[in-house]
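Entry 12.
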Amino acid sequence: MSTEVKVPTLGESVTEATIGEWLKQPGDAVALDEPIASLETDKVAIEVPSPVAGVMGQQVAAVGDTVNVGATIATIEAGGAAAAPAPAASPAPAPAAKAEAAAPAPATASEDSVTTLSPAVRRLVLEHGLDPSKIKGTGKDGRLTKEDVLAAANAAPEAPAVAPAPAVAAPAASGAPGRREERVKMTRMRQTIAKRLKAAQDTAAMLTTFNDVDMSAVMATRDKYRETFEKKHGVRLGFMSFFTKAVALAAHDIPAVNARIDGDEIVYHDYLDVSVAVSAPNGLVVPVVRNADGLSFAEIEKAIADLGKRAKDGTLTMDDMTGGTFTISNGGVFGGLMSTPIINPPQSAVLGLHRIEDRPVVRNGEIVIRPMMYLALSYDHRLIDGREAVTFLKTIKEAIEDPTRLLIDL
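Predicted 3D structure (tokens):
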């Protein structure tokens, strides 16, 4: 007896998804509610649980296929020892999988273990010649993430290059070593990111203004209260809570930065829902910290830590990604010195944070060394005037350089 596995409801206005990864293969034992596949929507990855216990049967759809809500994507066979379907019954691999299969397997990688990985992770494993069974996974249920593979690649001694197989190597030109190309279909999330960012550039009158901020006071505060804060609240005191509080303070004075354009109307929000840009295995995502203006430092840090962990694990929900009235993007964690961040529609502004580095500055007529950070505010000039943008950024600068302002609303 077979039970069909159907695409679940994906969220409001979301009618289709892409098969991102099969977590179970034909013949594998499956428990009730155990995830068998991962679906990629425009915003998040969603795992599909098995409706019954049994054995994984036929996979009706392949990785990369687009499936509608309610469509059958697999079957679960009754019993614990049912025979696995014949390999011929399995659908052909997606184009991305074909390209990856053509790549020569490194001598140190086990093909059986590699095939259970997501396409992106599998590609990194093959590129770096790693044995995935020797890498500790930090994703959900111990699965490997891209970050796990990259960390292992950086820690491992450089392995000798593996010569490409003649069957897949491009013809050498003028005595140059063999070269090859690989075509990988963009994930649904990456396609959506591309469309939204391009739409933001095409629609908004975007402009970016800059300032720099002396991080001495905030860093001193963190150093002084780091251990006490973590012991009391169970979370580390980071910079994001200071900047979130500073954004809330500045948005109170410059409400247009926390507003949006809807047709020929301006929608002002009396709340601050901050979209926090975090790195996930499938790309950059912006989950939302709700009512950030009313949260304490500890509540902000806990919310951001939780969203960051779930982004890495791939367990963010559609509700986590919905809404947001203002975005904070911290490129400094990757070492970025300065950038011009792009607005996250329909929001009207985004604050870009960057790396902290010691620079010479003038204080009281003397040249001194201070830990400085560049701030960038990209905004929609249709709604926000230059004076407002500069004032908003200046307020943030003053609050960070004198954190007492955050406590007395000054």
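Annotation: The longest strand covers residues 366-380. Residues 81-115, 158-174 have pLDDT under 50 and may be disordered.
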